[in-house]
Amino acid sequence: MVREIGKGNSLFNQFLAELRDKTIQSDRLRFRRNMERIGEIFAYEISKDLEYTKKDIVTPLGIASMSILKDNPAIATILRAGLPLHQGLLNYFDNADSAFVSAYRKYRKNKEFIIKMDYVSSASLIGKVLIISDPMLATGGSMTESIKALIQNGKPKHIHVVCLLASEEGITAIKRNFSLQNMTLWIGAIDDELTAKAYIVPGLGDAGDLAFGTKLD
């Protein structure tokens, strides 16, 4: 299932527009904060699909029967670009376990690249809901390899993939590699074009560099 949040009219698109706007995105603090706020919106939308249980809450005047989240999800992200998005999700799922994957493009002399995995930190995911975020779903390579690495720590009962922007090619790659019966893709917006260097167009640029500064190759 693919859910494109930006299709409707909401403040989500205001935050995403600012992330795309090259005259605004030069403010790193604002860029990170907008990513965090978008993460919070994704968290709220995902929460509607989770399981709840009834619990009696004692108030100063009586007892209220409330629906409470049954189990906290595990929240993962791909370093480093996904950190602000991850924080937004964590702001709402405040008792969730966190997992981190270090995955990046390693370019060869012919300008092609492979996905290099350096590090995975995760608790057991057996029977849990996994939410994994990364700002951009371009070719789908990093997300595919990251999910495969994470589920070596146990098979989740459902996986929610969260991305600000995605290409059709990236979505197709996820569908090809995983069963969507146990997966939901949450996308801010789907852009049509993917360049020869696998950058999404119109996209927003390099989310990691915009959030944290240009890195050495």
Structure overview:
- The chain has 217 residues and is of the alpha/beta class.
- 30% of the residues lie in helices and 34% in strands.
- It has six helices and twelve strands.
- The two termini are 36 Å apart.
- The radius of gyration is 18 Å and the shape is globular.
- It has a single domain, classed as Rossmann fold, CATH 3.40.50.
- The strands form three sheets. Strands 1, 4, 5, 6, 7, 8, 9 and 10 form an eight-stranded mixed beta sheet that branches.
- Helix 1 (11-20) packs antiparallel against helix 2 (28-47) and helix 2 packs across helix 3 (83-92).
Summarize, please.
By secondary structure, the protein is an alpha/beta fold. It is built from 6 helices and 12 strands.
- How many distinct domains? 1
Total of DSSP H or I helical runs spanning 4+ residues: 6
Give the low-confidence spans: none
Q: How big a fraction of the residues is strand? A: 25-35%
Helix content: 25-40%
- Quaternary form: single chain
Series of H and E elements: EHHEEEHEEEEHEHEEEH
N-to-C span: 36 Å
Category by helix and strand content: alpha/beta
> Mean pLDDT, as a whole number?
90
Beta strands, count: 12
* CATH overall fold name: Rossmann fold
Biggest sheet layout: 8 strands, mixed
Looking at the overall shape, the CATH architecture is: 3-Layer(aba) Sandwich
**Shape descriptor:** globular
What is the CATH C-level name?
Alpha Beta
